[in-house]
Automatic annotation (TrEMBL):
This is protein-serine/threonine phosphatase. One of its GO terms (molecular function) is metal ion binding. Its EC number is 3.1.3.16. It is an enzyme of class 3 (hydrolase). PANTHER family: PROTEIN PHOSPHATASE. Its cofactor is Mg(2+); Mn(2+). It comes from Coptis chinensis. Keywords: Hydrolase, Magnesium, Manganese, Metal-binding, Protein phosphatase. Pfam families: PP2C. One of its GO terms (cellular component) is membrane. Belongs to the PP2C family. It catalyses: O-phospho-L-threonyl-[protein] + H2O = L-threonyl-[protein] + phosphate; O-phospho-L-seryl-[protein] + H2O = L-seryl-[protein] + phosphate. SUPFAM superfamilies: PP2C-like (SSF81606).
Length: 383
């Protein structure tokens, strides 16, 4: 379809952008809206500043996000630091909203029990969130069977006692901006890998886990998909591909597999990376895959490195939107006028959180003031 023909189809869906204004929700104090774009240009976490932005493309926003800073457990003597969560939903917003409300609480619970932060604590938090959501699916199976087809990628970052923990299940990504002392430029260091069937390593992992299933990954319309349906191999939710009892009526036929399965096709276990932070580590860019579809790691790091920190997440989102518009041979100002739902033909929901790292603060082990902020969830009325 040519760009001009496509524009004629979507032009009735154009709308005027809302004027940016303060968010009336107290938990998002100081945040603003501009049409489908929500942002908080600057705030302070335990180890420096942060910037946050979300833009909606789907009818219902499927991205959810949060930043928590201060106590990471319920114990006064427990670990302190900063937690970031990016939850990129698919099939609907229910799972990402659930993770946004529960995963951090489970992390605090297990950190209290273990009296510290660890890979085990993080794994337990992911799996407990998964178990509770699947329990919810079971309870609502007859009244809301479509809940079995909803899932969410989960990307978590934790900074505690000078150590960075990254946990990922799905295809969101975190990239570190590290100062090169020789050139004084920021180099990009990808700290996570995606669990997406487009990657050969993921396809090989799936084939090794399901040696008797020749159709575990299928090339469909030039896109690799698991069972011809989904691209991500790890997620919270997606009960219909984890438990056969949810892969039958009354679930919609497009989600039901023709052959029964005995073991889960997808799983919720995150891959966890741990590393010490160093003085040359300048900032971290956490984002759902909607950003990385349009910007490379290097492009994103250069934008952060070459511009003021205030509003940098919003700048990254706008850079991605400019690229999305360019790919369709249209102007960014015209893209902004296209309403949610139809907007998904141009780009995905995009969430970005940029954490700046003050090495003097990272090296300190003192207590930190508390912060709890969730990104816009798409449910508020336009301002």
């Amino acid at each position: 379809m040519t760009s001009s023909r496509f524009m004629k189809i979507v032009s009735p869906c154009w709308k005027s952008s809302a004027v940016a204004d303060d968010d009336p929700n107290g938990s998002n104090s100081g945040s603003s809206r501009d049409g489908l774009l929500w942002y908080k240009d600057s705030g302070h976490h335990a180890y420096g500043e942060f910037s946050m932005a979300v833009v909606q493309a789907n009818n219902l926003l499927e991205d959810q996000s949060q930043i928590e800073s201060g106590p990471l457990s319920s114990l006064d003597s427990g670990p302190q630091g900063t937690f970031v969560g990016i939850y990129d939903g698919h099939g609907g917003p229910e799972t990402s909203r659930f993770a946004n409300q529960n995963l951090f609480q489970y992390l605090k619970k297990f950190a209290s029990e273990q009296q510290g932060m660890s890979t085990e604590v993080i794994h337990k938090a992911f799996l407990a969130t998964e178990e509770e959501f699947l329990s919810l699916v079971k309870k609502q199976w007859l009244s809301k069977p479509q809940l079995a087809s909803v899932g969410s990628c989960c990307l978590v970052g934790i900074i505690c006692s000078g150590t960075l923990y990254i946990a990922n299940a799905g295809d969101s990504r975190v990239v570190l901006g590290r100062l090169d002392k020789a050139t004084k430029e920021a180099t990009d260091v990808q700290l996570s890998t995606e669990h997406n069937a487009s990657m050969e390593s993921v396809r090989e992992e799936l084939r090794s886990l399901h040696p008797d299933d020749s159709q575990i990954v299928v090339l469909k319309h030039k896109v690799w998909r698991i069972k011809g349906i989904i691209q991500v191999s790890r997620s919270i939710g997606d009960a219909y591909l984890k438990n056969a009892e949810f892969n039958k009526e009354p679930l919609l036929s497009k989600f039901r597999l023709s052959e029964p399965f005995c073991k889960p096709i997808l799983n919720a276990a995150p891959t966890v990376w741990i590393q010490k932070l160093h003085p040359q580590d300048q900032f971290l860019i956490f984002a759902s895959d909607g950003l990385w579809e349009h910007l490379s790691n290097k492009e994103a790091v250069n934008i952060v490195n070459e511009n003021p920190s205030h509003g940098i997440a919003r700048r990254l989102v706008k850079a991605a939107l400019h690229e999305a518009a360019k790919k369709r041979e249209m102007r960014y100002t015209d893209l902004k006028k296209i309403d949610r739902g139809v907007r998904r033909h141009f780009h995905d929901d995009i969430t970005v959180i940029v954490l700046f790292l003050d090495s003097n603060l990272v090296s300190k082990s003192s207590s930190h003031p508390s912060l709890s902020l969730r990104g816009w969830d798409g449910t508020m009325q336009a301002l």
